[in-house]
Every structure is written in C-alpha cells, then in structure tokens.
Amino acid sequence: GYTEAMRKLIQQYAKDVTAGQLASGFEHSYRVYHLTREIGEDLSYDDDILHAACFLHDVEMSAGHPRSSADKAEAILHETGFDPDKIPLVVEAIVNHMPGGRPASVEAKLLFDANLLDSIGAVGFARLAVGGFLWHHYRTMPEIVDYLRRELELTGQFHFPRSRELANQKIAFTRSALEQFERELRL
After folding, report:
1. What is the mean pLDDT of the chain?
2. What is the structure's pLDDT at 22?
C-alpha cells in the first residue's frame, strides 16, 4: 500500500521540484491537500490518490502544465512503488485540475475545487498577482485585475456544496479587494 514513507517521498519530491515557485509551489500543494480533506470530510474517496494528485499537480509549470505535470507524476509514482492500478486515477485528476478540465472521479473533483479555492481570497489574490506576471506575462495592473475577475467567475464551477460554503467569504474578500484595487488604480 501507500506507506507513510512513500507519502514523505512524494512530498519531498514536490518540494524539491517546485522550490522557489512562489505562486504554485509546495505551500500551494499543501494548502490544496488540506482543502480537499476539508471539502471531502463527508465524502468517500481514496486518500492515496488524493494525496498524490494534490502534491504532484503542479510539478511542471510550463504552458499546458496539467498534462506535463501528469506525465511527471506518472513516472515518479511508478518509481516509488505506488499502486499501479491507482496511477491512472492520479493522472486523470492532475490532467483535469484546471478550469476547462473535466474531472470525473471524486478525487479529481476535490482537487479541482481545492485548487480553485486557493485561487481566491487573500492567498489567491497574491498567488494570481504573481502568477499573472510569471505564467501569463502580464505587464500592467489592469491586466492583473482582469485576470483576478476572470478567476472569480470560475467559482460557478465548484462540484461540491462544501466548496461553495468555503468559498463564500473568499469570494466576498476578492470582490472587495478588486474594487479597492480599481479605485487605487484610478488615481
């Protein structure tokens, strides 16, 4: 099975390959895993699949990173002795973790929702401001505002009522922060 040693190995791998990634690094993956556990507390899911998918979903951050992260995850999981029957489910969750993805399994839906939850609120505001610059090469504050607004609109895509509950306060904060941001930009 998926031992504590394997979990530590996967977390260490994620920590090593995402070192210095401010917006999508280990801290993001750690928060995402804990958010999935919170969303899924009354759901039945496979925690081995969930843990691996959460910690490996952003191990490769080029354009098209869900696919490249999934490929890297598949390779590392085969090396660690992870249950080979569960690897396709980890891959499916990672490939579909972004808006536009089509998560099918409960684990994939949990990862999708938690990743989106970590893109709103105060942490989300900081992540996307940095990410907009790093991932999308935005060069102006109004571009960042538009990006944050688009991300906020995606919160209609949550799969679980619990995700929506956890999002409400973060959505309110983000709306308020965006209004403040725009007021300050109009000086």
Report:
1. 93
2. 80
